[in-house]
């Protein structure tokens, strides 16, 4: 049997992680190796390996990722000072965990 990826385990609450936000489509939690004072990961509950694996039916998930990033920046108090959003795609693009996720960093 194939082992679930780390982000699937977190989304399914099989791995203890402080979830900062959750809805039907995604979860948000802190990156364990932050690249900024604030570094959040916004992760779909559906396992999507990377940007390259998106389908037309995933459009609502992408919209939710971006709107949640905006909301989390506001909640964390960095919306006005500025923040960065990015996806790493495939190993050559820096992707280490092969489950689609959006990085939200800021707080400098």
Overview of the molecule:
- It is built from 2 helices and 5 strands.
- Strands 1-2-3-5-4 form a 5-stranded antiparallel β-sheet.
- With 108 residues, it is an alpha+beta fold.
- The chain has one domain: HIT-like (HIT family, subunit A).
- A hairpin with a 3-residue loop joins β1 (19-22) and β2.
- The chain has helices spanning 6-11, 59-75, and strands at residues 19-22, 26-30, 38-44, 83-86, 102-106.
Features:
single chain, 108 residues, alpha+beta, HIT family, subunit A, five-stranded antiparallel beta sheet, 2 helices, 5 strands, 21% helix
CATH top-level class? Alpha Beta
Low-confidence stretches: none
Oligomer: single chain
Strand content is 15-25%
Q: Count of helices?
A: 2
CATH architecture descriptor text: 2-Layer Sandwich
CATH topology: HIT family, subunit A
Structural class: alpha+beta
CATH homology group: HIT-like
User: Compute the gyration radius: what is it?
Assistant: 13 Å
In short:
This protein is α+β, with helices and mostly antiparallel strands and 108 residues long. It has helices at 6-11, 59-75; strands spanning 19-22, 26-30, 38-44, 83-86, 102-106. 21% of the residues lie in helices and 23% in strands.
């Amino acid at each position: 049997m194939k082992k679930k990826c780390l982000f699937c385990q977190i989304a399914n609450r099989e791995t203890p992680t402080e979830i900062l936000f959750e809805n039907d489509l995604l979860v948000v939690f802190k990156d364990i190796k932050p690249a900024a004072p604030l570094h959040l990961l916004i992760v779909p509950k559906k396992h999507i390996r990377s940007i390259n694996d998106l389908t037309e039916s995933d459009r609502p998930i992408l919209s939710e990722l971006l709107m949640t990033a905006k909301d989390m920046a506001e909640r964390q108090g960095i919306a006005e000072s500025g923040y960065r959003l990015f996806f790493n795609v495939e190993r050559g693009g820096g992707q280490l965990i092969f489950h689609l996720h959006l990085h939200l960093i800021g707080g400098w």
